[in-house]
Amino acid sequence: MHWPMELLPLPLYAELGAHPLSGLLWTLLLLFLWYCYRVGSDPPAPGRAHPGKHKSSSRCSVTRASSCARAECGATSKVDTSDRGTPCISMETGEEEEQGRGYLTPVLSNALFPAQATASGRKLYAALQEYAKRYSWAGMGRIHKGLRDQAKLNDWSSIQKPHLFYLPDVPSIPFFPRDAHRHDIEVLEANYPIILEEFQTVYQRGIDPKLGWTGLGPKGQAVFSLYSAGVCIAENCRSCPCTYRTLLCLRTFISSNSLGAAGFWLLGPGATLGGVYGPTNTRLRCHLGVQTPPQCELVVGGEPQCWSQGHCLLVDDSFLHTVSHNGVPEDGPRVIFSVDLWHPNVAAAERQALDYIFCPEQ
User: Fold this and answer.
1) Is residue 68 domain-shared with residue 130, that is, in the same domain?
2) Do both 204 and 330 map to the same domain?
3) pLDDT at 96
4) 236 in a domain, yes or no?
5) Domain check: are 255 and 309 in the same one?
6) Among 222, 224, 217, 218, which Cα is nearest to 199's?
7) Which of 124, 136, 287, 325 is most exposed by smallest CB count within 10 Å?
8) What is the distance between the alpha carbons of residues 283 and 339, in angstroms, rounded to a whole number?
9) Is 138 helix (H, G, I), strand (E, B) or coil?
10) Do 69 and 202 belong together in one domain?
11) Which family does it belong to (predicted)?
């Protein structure tokens, strides 16, 4: 039987005279809006949590998502084993969080500070909490962990043992290559002639505490500081203006906290300074050789090195180190210009926090 076209029911888009593709798109849009409405309005099934709130174990991996959600992830996050499609993201092990050693501890569990911590350690931790309230806990995981573990570190027998603050997971070697701070080293070495000239001017005036010298020892030890514990010594800087301006040109000079210092260090013939650790592993000491007689030696972490006049050494003084000058009196003192630079593996956020925590007391 033949039906005329005018008797057949036409779709809405045909009646409106619209293009068939346009009508199809409108239909799909309405279906999508209806689906979104249903998904948003339906309550979650009992015993199921949002996938973004799952607590994961570091032993799980994305490639084993189904077995991880069924076994290991179920043990740590108390999630229904039916969530087999949720990948497990490795962030922090359950054991570390329970023992308060994880990097995310300050954010996730608010673990208490160790009871055996010293008074200075508690003071530093209080400063970290104050900094986090004012700014953020973001990026503070290593600092938090270091402050918590400092009391344990002081009891260890190790070749590297900073006595004030140890930042964990910082790559450390006794002597660093020049590339770690190439810019600052090149600036210091380029200005060596004027630094030497200004030192000789200060040295010829005499070594006297009234003239800005400190740390005087029985065998020619003396220090002429431009910065001491993060504080600029204005009178000494006026005596060495070009050297002071050179310090301001350095990109990584620690000038805003008590971990940083800069100045001329003298050691007389026959003197030995040994068996000491630096305060922290967050810095590197840059030694510019100003006057380097023969038979002068620096041993850091069991590795010996000698200074060279006009050249720099990058030293991690948190390692056990000794300094000796075995020359004769005619050789004169060994003189270096020492500058504290940030360790290259300390992040910018951590540097800002350490400036706040170790703010110099003026």
Assistant:
1) no
2) yes
3) 45
4) yes
5) yes
6) 224
7) 136
8) 10
9) coil
10) no
11) Belongs to the aspartyl/asparaginyl beta-hydroxylase family.
Tokens at 170, concatenated = 């910082």
Classify residue 30: in a domain, yes or no: no
Q: Flag whether 6 is in a domain.
A: no
Residue for token pair 């003239």? 211
Say how many domains are in the chain.
3
In single-letter form, the type of residue at position 21 comes to: L
**DSSP H or E stretch at residue 231:** strand 231-232
Residue with tokens 């032993």: 59
Tell me the pLDDT tens digit for each residue of 142-192. 999 999 888 777 667 788 989 899 999 999 999 999 999 999 999 999 999
146-181 exposure pattern, b = at least 16 Cβ within 10 A, e = fewer: bbbbbeebeeeeeebbbebbbbbebebebbbeeebb
- Residue 282 belongs to domain spanning: 175-357
Structure tokens at 71: 């076994």
How far, in Å, CA of 245 to CA of 96, rounded?
A: 47
Sign of CA dihedral 155, 160, 163, 166: negative
Q: Check which CATH number belongs to the domain holding 186 and give it.
A: 2.60.120.330
Residues forming beta bridges with residue 319, ordered by sequence position: 160
Give the closest residue to 214 by CA, choosing from 227, 224, 205: 224
